[in-house]
Amino acid sequence: MNNFIDEMSGTRSKQLLYLISINSASLSNDPYGNFVVQHVIKLENPEFIELICLALKGHLVDLSMMKEGSHVVEKILKFQNFIGHLVFDFLNSDRIIQVANDRYGNYVIQKALKDQ
């Protein structure tokens, strides 16, 4: 799929990237889908980064504690507009201690703190 994304251009490419972006919360849970979301993030297109941020909002605590999802959260941490979503989700969760004690969640928290 990543090669397909790289080879596509024009309207169809934007449509595909849009669909991946708005479905990134469910794709991030998938052992293969998370690589596709990470690939879209690496393209650094602000339009799709914003869509991914919006799609992941409310799912960040759960994603941070999953092997696949944590990689997506880590990749998008470098975008400043995403940090607010992460902080909001963590502060509105009663599971922050659970995230900190989780092997994947702990790494996400460390990465977020290190990058700031």
Automatic annotation (TrEMBL):
Start and stop residues of the Pumilio repeats: 89-116
Cell compartment(s), UniProt: Cytoplasm
Transferase is among the record's keywords: no
GO biological process, one term: regulation of translation
UniProt GO MF annotations: mRNA binding
Chief localisation class: cytoplasm
PUM-HD domain mapped to chain residues: 1-116
Classification via Gene3D superfamilies: Leucine-rich Repeat Variant (1.25.10.10)
Keywords, in A-Z order: Cytoplasm, Repeat, RNA-binding, Translation regulation
InterPro entries: ARM-like, ARM-type_fold, PUM-HD, Pumilio_RNA-bd_rpt
Any one of the GO CC terms: cytoplasm
PANTHER family named among the record's database cross-references: PUMILIO HOMOLOG 16-RELATED, RNA BINDING PROTEIN PUMILIO-RELATED
Name of this chain's protein: PUM-HD domain-containing protein
Species, as recorded: Dipteronia sinensis
